[in-house]
């Protein structure tokens, strides 16, 4: 029946906030965003990069095909049913651009979700699990590259070329900072932790703050909020102590 049954949305909103302007949606959106950020990070941490990138050429072919085939098929049907688009609400050109982004998002497999299902089925380290994981990583990397270009293109056309170039440079800087600074800091934390002992709480808190900050950074530069946590999760050293959150 959905949230409309018995006015559940209105009742829950009034409990979360008595302010009619906020109506409880802001706290709900905040909880949802934090949950998505931490879930994406934790599932990315569970991903074995060493195993994923040493499984031969088959996962690469599967990863490329699973992204490009749905993408091009979807783009082939993009111009269908455009008569119902109201030009006063959204220009046709902009509507087609949004359709392209939606098609690309549906073509992406979402690595954190794949990792979660493989982990729940206890086949993450099996031959089939490694094949799926490798293909998902290739698919996600293509998706990230497409989204960076798509978002930057939209910024270039609708805001300004300078802002678009700034966003691209900011994403490149984020990648290099994670690769050269965060990765080495994570390795140093592992070296400082005695064998068989858990990571100190201050280091765990520092990692979580870094993940949340990377999400804010990605959003500030007009990218998806999950891009920063996803990249950071991939560069956390595998296995205990830090990689076993």
From TrEMBL:
Q: Where in the cell is it found?
A: Membrane
Q: Which GO terms describe its molecular function?
A: antiporter activity
Q: Which UniProt keywords are present, listed alphabetically?
A: Ion transport, Membrane, Potassium, Potassium transport, Transmembrane, Transmembrane helix, Transport
Q: Which Gene3D superfamilies match?
A: 1.20.1530.20
**What is an annotated GO biological process for this record, any one?**
proton transmembrane transport
Q: Does the keyword Nucleus apply?
A: no
Q: So where does this one cross the membrane?
A: 26-45, 57-81, 131-152, 164-182, 203-220
Q: Which GO terms describe its cellular component?
A: endomembrane system; membrane
Q: Which Pfam families match?
A: Na_H_Exchanger
User: Which residue range or ranges hold the Cation/H+ exchanger transmembrane domain?
Assistant: 35-240
Per the record, membrane topology reads: Multi-pass membrane protein
Stated family: Belongs to the monovalent cation:proton antiporter 2 (CPA2) transporter (TC 2.A.37) family. CHX (TC 2.A.37.4) subfamily.
Q: What is this protein called?
A: Cation/H+ exchanger transmembrane domain-containing protein
What species does this protein belong to?
Microthlaspi erraticum
């Amino acid at each position: 029946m959905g949230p409309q049954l018995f006015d559940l949305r209105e009742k829950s909103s009034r409990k979360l906030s008595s302010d009619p302007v906020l109506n409880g949606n802001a706290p709900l959106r905040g909880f949802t965003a934090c949950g998505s950020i931490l879930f994406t990070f934790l599932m990315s941490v569970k991903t074995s990069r060493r195993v994923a990138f040493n499984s031969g050429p088959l996962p690469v072919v599967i990863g490329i095909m699973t992204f490009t085939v749905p993408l091009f098929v979807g783009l082939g049907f993009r111009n269908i049913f455009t008569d119902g688009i109201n030009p006063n609400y959204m220009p046709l050109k902009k509507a087609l651009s949004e359709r392209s982004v939606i098609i690309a998002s549906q073509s992406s497999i979402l690595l954190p979700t794949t990792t979660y299902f493989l982990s729940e089925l206890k086949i993450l380290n099996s031959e089939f699990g490694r094949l799926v994981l490798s293909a998902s990583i290739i698919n996600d990397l293509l998706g990230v590259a497409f989204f960076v270009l798509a978002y930057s293109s939209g910024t270039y056309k609708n805001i300004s070329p300078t802002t678009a170039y700034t966003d691209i440079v900011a994403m490149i800087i984020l990648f290099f900072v994670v690769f050269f600074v965060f990765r080495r800091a994570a390795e140093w934390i592992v070296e400082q932790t005695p064998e068989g002992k858990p990571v100190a709480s201050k280091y765990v808190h520092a990692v979580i703050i870094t993940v949340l900050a990377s999400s804010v950074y990605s959003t500030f530069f007009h990218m998806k909020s999950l891009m920063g946590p996803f990249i950071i999760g991939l560069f956390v050293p595998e296995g205990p102590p830090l990689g076993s959150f």
